[in-house]
């Protein structure tokens, strides 16, 4: 079950970032995180903290509600 959540978060962050036309570097800068951290999140190899997830969501100009809705709707390949 844990792997499913990590994969869904990874997929959702990547999809939203691409939809906004942001590079990993740009998202990292907006969220005050390292680009390698963003890369790890998007690849599902980082066990992201809720604090970091919140920073990323806000850096994507996304509400918590819309992020969670997308997280539950979209399925990773």
From TrEMBL:
Xref: SMART domains: HTH_XRE
Which PROSITE patterns does its entry note?
HTH_CROC1
For this protein, the record's InterPro entries field holds: Cro/C1-type_HTH (IPR001387), Lambda_DNA-bd_dom_sf (IPR010982), TransReg_Diox_bact_type (IPR050807)
Q: What UniProt keywords apply to this chain's record, in alphabetical order?
A: DNA-binding, Transcription, Transcription regulation
In what residue span(s) does the HTH cro/C1-type domain sit?
13-67
Entry keyword annotation includes DNA-binding: yes
Reply yes or no: does the keyword Glycoprotein apply: no
What Pfam families does this protein map onto? Answer: HTH_3 (PF01381)
> According to the lineage, what is the superkingdom?
Bacteria
Q: Which PANTHER family match?
A: HTH-TYPE TRANSCRIPTIONAL REGULATOR, HTH-TYPE TRANSCRIPTIONAL REGULATOR SUTR
List the protein's name.
Helix-turn-helix transcriptional regulator
Q: Which organism is it from?
A: Phormidium pseudopriestleyi FRX01
